[in-house]
Design goal:
five-stranded parallel sheet; DNA-binding; alpha/beta; 24 helices; five-stranded mixed sheet; 42% helix; single chain; 18 strands
DNA sequence: GCCGTTTTCGGCCCGACTGTTTTCAGTCG
């Protein structure tokens, strides 16, 4: 009956409302527009569904939502529409909001084009391309030949919307190519990767670079001459932007050494961190920008310059804030109180707790491509002390429970043999491997391995690989039921998301985290770059409740074990320290934790 | 329209770049 509003849909509606106000009277509505946009951003970043919060009467607790928005959202959720919202949108054709997704087209431009050319909401981009090709746009007031050409280019050559994102791991590869190109210019004294790449966000919107140079013009010329450039979006004195194949945007900013710290800070973002930091600073009489800090209380408002970021934050009375935490989720207040934690680092990791060897376990899922000894060799290269082999469980189909037990017994014997070899002193840092298993959680919460089978294991991981669409309460029961088994220690890739491909399952995470804390279960942070699961925002929620985590790469071959860095990034974004992660413990400490009653 | 270690009123981050303009509006991050 009633529409199930997702956070993204509500946020989009609020952004459309902001755009409508922008079209109607930007001056009069200036701060209302900001308020709507703020609310949209807050809702996008919520870790629970806004509709659920409304159910629980907690709308007013969401930052950016005041009396007025709460009232209108209440009406929207109750009846499917809000009178007030509808009246704001009334005079704006739907095609306007579609065209706003085109690069370089904002609310004003979209509205002008739609009104002038009577563009309807069936294929508005096609209609826009047509009038551009016919040379009709150039005659409109405020447009010309250049802007007409730009619009045509955006709408035809670059079909992907502004909001497109790519995987972090993919973006790293792309950024390394352009870094290599930029370093060929001897005017580049230093170059950094900033923005969401430096903050290690799981998906990247564009690649941001900054350069120290005294010859801005030459460096920016070299940049736009990058051989893979498919389009130059802009090029000025301080910055430039290009597009490269794959429709990835690359932005660069250049500055001399003496103010480079401010540029690093500004261009690392996030936007929301910067806004919050600037608001905080204004209250103390300072105005921040990428060029430095203005003391508003001094007569001359002299610009103070900072060559490095540490000094920039220190000047503001703040502890240095690691880039991964700069999301305006409490880091500024923490820095003020000197409470920024020492975040986990890759070197702290002593084990990989999810990997799949080529041991033939007769599973219906994918098996690994490398032998257990190959994985151990890789573990030695990484300096680990122990590993856990976590192949998928043998398939139920085509096996009796007894046959499954037999297969698991065979695997146990193999692991035992390896451990006795390791005990005899095989060269390398790995001292022990654990006999584990990644077991499907069946839709009803039961496990496809008998208790007798489970007893062959040191411990088990459980995870969801089917029926992703159960209701929230059924899903929660399903997970808790699986975790309840005494042999089960870890909930692996908990939300089941595949970034940019599959949404997270819906579950009552608060309940699951509380259960984990109470019953000594661990929550995995899967380091596969397309999983990164738990997601960072849920890690923070879990951390507050005292959850302990494991890090596992889910490697299906030896080089997959190199993905640990991605998991570390995610853990850092979740504010985790060494204490929070189980596989930072030494082998003996880890064994104690395993056998804890 | 939101919000409060100046506040229930009076603020709300700060700047670059482009195109179409003669001083600025629109878009973007």
């Amino acid at each position: 009956m009633n529409k199930q509003w997702s956070n993204l849909e509500v946020a989009e509606l609020l952004r459309d409302l902001a755009a409508a106000l922008q079209i109607k009277d930007p001056k009069k509505n200036k701060f209302r527009i900001i308020a709507y946009e703020n609310a949209a951003t807050e809702i996008e970043h919520l870790s629970s569904e806004i509709k659920d919060l409304w159910d629980e009467n907690k709308l007013a607790e969401v930052p950016g939502i005041g009396d007025s928005l709460a009232k209108n959202l209440d009406e929207l959720f109750k009846t499917g529409k809000s009178e007030h919202f509808e009246s704001l949108l009334r005079d704006i054709p739907k095609a306007v909001f579609d065209l706003m997704k085109v690069q370089g087209v904002g609310p004003k431009t979209a509205f002008k084009l739609v009104s002038q050319f009577n563009i309807s909401d069936t294929n508005p981009k096609g209609q826009l391309a047509k009038v551009a090709r016919e040379g009709k746009i150039r005659d409109l007031e405020g447009f010309g030949e250049k802007s007409e050409a730009e619009i045509l280019k955006s709408v035809t050559e670059f079909k992907v919307d502004k909001a497109k994102r790519i995987l972090y791991s993919y973006a790293v590869g792309k950024s390394e190519e352009i870094l290599a190109w930029m370093r060929q210019d001897k005017n580049v004294k230093r170059i950094d990767t900033l923005g969401s790449l430096r903050r290690k966000v799981s998906t990247i919107g564009d690649i941001d670079l900054s350069v120290i140079t005294d010859r801005s013009k030459e460096v920016l010329n070299h940049f736009v001459n990058y051989p893979h450039t498919s389009r130059i979006l802009e090029k000025g004195e301080h910055k430039a932007s290009i597009m490269v194949p794959g429709e990835i945007q690359i932005d660069i900013r250049v500055q001399p050494q003496d103010s480079y710290g401010s540029l690093l800070q500004h261009f690392t973002g996030s936007k929301y961190h910067n806004i919050a930091l600037r608001e905080y600073s204004l209250k103390n009489g300072f105005s921040l920008s990428e060029f430095g800090i203005k003391d508003l209380n001094s007569k001359t408002e002299k610009l103070l310059k900072f060559s490095d970021e540490e000094k920039f934050y220190k000047f503001l009375g703040l502890q240095f804030i690691p880039p991964e935490l700069r999301e305006d989720t409490g880091e500024i207040e923490a820095a003020r109180q000197n409470k920024i934690p020492k975040l986990i680092e890759l070197a702290d990791i002593k084990a990989d707790l999810q990997m799949h060897s080529s041991f033939d376990i007769e599973t219906s899922h994918d098996i690994g491509g490398c032998s257990m000894w190959d994985l151990i060799e890789k573990g030695n290269d990484l300096g680990y002390e122990y590993l856990a082999f976590t192949e998928h469980n043998p398939s139920q189909k085509g096996h009796t429970q007894q046959q499954i037990v037999n297969i698991l017994q065979k695997k146990k014997d193999t692991v035992d043999q390896i451990n006795s070899s390791l005990a005899k002193g095989v060269k390398g840092s790995i001292k022990k491997v654990f006999n584990s298993l990644e077991i499907d959680i069946l839709p009803n919460g039961s496990l496809p391995v008998s208790q007798e089978g489970l007893e062959t294991l040191d411990f088990a991981l459980v995870s969801i690989h089917s029926s992703f669409n159960l209701s929230k309460s059924d899903m929660t029961k399903r997970i808790l039921s699986a975790l309840d088994n005494p042999k089960v220690k870890v909930l692996a890739h908990p939300t089941g998301r595949l970034i940019l491909k599959r949404e997270s399952i819906e579950a009552d995470w608060g309940k699951i985290f509380e259960f984990a804390v109470k019953n000594d279960k661990w929550i995995e942070i899967n380091a596969d770059s397309s999983r990164l699961d738990l997601p960072d925002y849920l890690i923070k929620d879990a951390l507050k409740l005292g959850v302990k985590f494991t890090l596992g790469t889910d490697a299906h071959n030896a080089w997959g074990m190199d993905n640990m860095q991605f998991g570390i990034n995610n853990a850092r974004r979740g504010w985790l320290t060494v204490d929070d992660i189980v596989n930072t413990r030494s082998l003996s400490q880890f064994e104690k934790l395993l056998t804890k009653p």
